What does this fold into?
Amino acid sequence: MSGNTRARTRESSTWTTRRWLRVGAAVALTVLTLLAGTGAWVLARTESISENLVNVKSPALSTSFRLESALLNQETGIRGYGVTGAPGFLAPYQQGLTDQATYTARLKELLHGDAAALKDLRNVQDAADTWQTRIARPIAASPAGTPSPVAAERAAAGKKAFDALRVALSGQQERLRTERAQAVEDLDATMVLRNWLFTAIAVVIAALTVAVFEGLRRGITVPLDQLGADARAVADGDFDRPITLTGPADLRLLSGEIDFMRRRLVRELAFTEEARLRLDAQAANLQRSNAELEQFAYVASHDLQEPLRKVSSFTQLLQRRYGGQLDARADQYIDYAVDGANRMQTLINDLLDFSRVGRVHHELQSVDLGSVLERTLSSLSVSIEETGASITHDPLPPLVADPTQMGMLWQNLIGNAIKFHRPDHSPEIHITAAREDPLWRFTITDNGIGIAPEYAEKVFVIFQRLHTKDAYKGSGIGLAMCKKIVEFHGGAISVDPDYRDGARITFTLAGEPPKAIGPSTMPEVTRADTEPAP
It folds into this structure.
């Protein structure tokens, strides 16, 4: 071995892993940069040719054929109309004119920048304008019912003009075919170059991978395996196992950071366990507070109604005993007191019904909505008869639901449809049901005064009224209760803002509602508890 060879061997043996990696990376990057630049150019070239072929050449050729078809339709329609005078032959002519304008505009857009192709298109337009001016328009303007004399007079001229149009179309299509074929050839050649280039890139990458694999294994893989084993032990729950610091300085630094995270995780776990114990205590306190709140609601809706009973009873006694014996202002004040007590009683009863939805309810069971609707209509029979309401419905499905709440839902929705009818029209109400897996969608449509779109959300808020109590009686709770019942049964309710001939309310119900919280343990407050004493 010569001295120079031995010197080069000693020099290369002193290279560090970082130096080998730097030299190898520099060579690899240089080669890959050249290949990548060439590859980028080839890809850009391929994309450009492909885009031109797909988005310009092919569409332009097909649009030219469509333009030819539109012109042939015009020629056919004009020829038939000229021979027979039948108006039906003008339809393809008129459609052909429309299509001609569309396809001509499309070709101008596709051939933008291609002077030769645009010149061919102008030739086609000029030939078409010549044929239409001399032949088509005069024949189309002839009276219908009899053969056009113009058609007979200009038959030879018409054939000559349309033959010239065909020649122009053929020239245009031939150019477009040639350009498309050339684009296909360019694309094939570029794709072959691209495939060879990327094969070369793959070979170079494979060679570089093999060259650096051994160095990476010794300097990185083995230390990382040790680090991974320690990390997996910690992940399996051995949080007291320290992370071994091995390998190069950067890997030792990484191991130290992971060990720091392990120690921090141990501290965080201790803090989390303490926080969990505090949350358990807070949850118990919250549960106790909810129970106390439910007890308070029961007391507020039951025991605190006794003063209202007395006010209502005694104001009614005053009205019966002293009505007409005092002056008119005293009678008016008594009427105000009686009306206020009655409205407060109605409001409390409605609030009781509202609060019971989802809290105090019967066991869910299979409910025939049709039967529930019939019972509801029976309970509304007086208002139905007084207003002359007509109520129809599609077949209604059986659902797993609370039958009492389903009755309340129909009662409020149909009652509102009857209440808010137009003074000069009898209410007409129709109920539909349609399956939308996994839900059922119901609609209640009426011909009443309707709901303005800006109030479509507001009407479902409790105590929100769109009219004064003098115009329409009520507490403003009905639709809010419907919303609560529908949501308790896994559905949603809304107003159709696009319906203008009245009001249309749609809601969905699940075939089997989601599992809900069980019935409250508080005693149930009934309307009997809130009625005034006699």
Observations:
- Confidence is low (pLDDT under 50) at residues 516-534.
- Strands lie at 365-368, 390-393, 398-401, 428-436, 439-446, 493-495, 503-510.
